[in-house]
Amino acid sequence: MKKATMLMIFIVFAVCGISLQSVSAADNVAFIDVDALFDNYNKTIELNKKLDATVQTHQAERDGKVTEIKQLQSELVLLATDARTGKQAEIDEKVKELQTYDEETRAKLAEERNTYMQEILVELDEKVKAYGAEKGYDFILNSRFALYKKDSFDVTDDILQRVNNQ
Question: 78-102, pLDDT tens digit by residue?
């Protein structure tokens, strides 16, 4: 009987020990909302402002080209039939230039944005790793991939505050 009691006590302590290990392991896990971290990072906000200014500059230049094409089209209507051919060729060339300008501008802006985004993501990755090491986390997971998580394990705001203050 004493052996059975001792065995039961041992099993209870073993189960409690496993439960305590699970709790302590859970304390070493955190989640971050990568999208919120990226979107609210000061460097991302600055990048978006810079890109918006570039887009506005290109849009103003594009608007000038469109206005020039419209002006040529209005002149075309007033011309005699024999003079229209040359003017139409000029209009077609300007439209082609506008299309080329649009394609090149889109490609340039996309490449610039992707380059900056990659740099920011690498920087944030390094900062999250440093944060995790400093705080003693075993894992910091992307909350997007978690089916369920307690909000108390979300460290996004803490990391965001740190990276924006640096």
Answer: 877 777 888 888 989 999 999 999 9
Q: How far is CA 4 from CA 7, 10, 85, 109, in A?
A: 5, 10, 106, 75
Tokens in use for 89? 């060729």
Calpha distance 130→124 (Å, rounded)? 10
Three-class SS of the chain: CHHHHHHHHHHHHHHHHHHHHHHHHHCCEEEECHHHHHHHCHHHHHHHHHHHHHHHHHHHHHHHHHHHHHHHHHHHHHCCHHHHHHHHHHHHHHHHHHHHHHHHHHHHHHHHHHHHHHHHHHHHHHHHHHHHHHHCCCEEEEHHHCCCCCHHHECHHHHHHHHHHC
User: How many Cα atoms occupy the beta-carbon half-sphere of 93 within 13 Å?
Assistant: 7
pTM (2 decimals)?
0.68
pLDDT digits (tens, 9 = 90+) for 34-65: 999 999 999 999 999 999 999 999 999 999 99
How far apart CA 24 and CA 7 sit, in angstroms, is: 25
In sequence order, what are the beta bridge partners of 97?
none
From the CA atom positions of the chain, what is the Rg in Å? 31
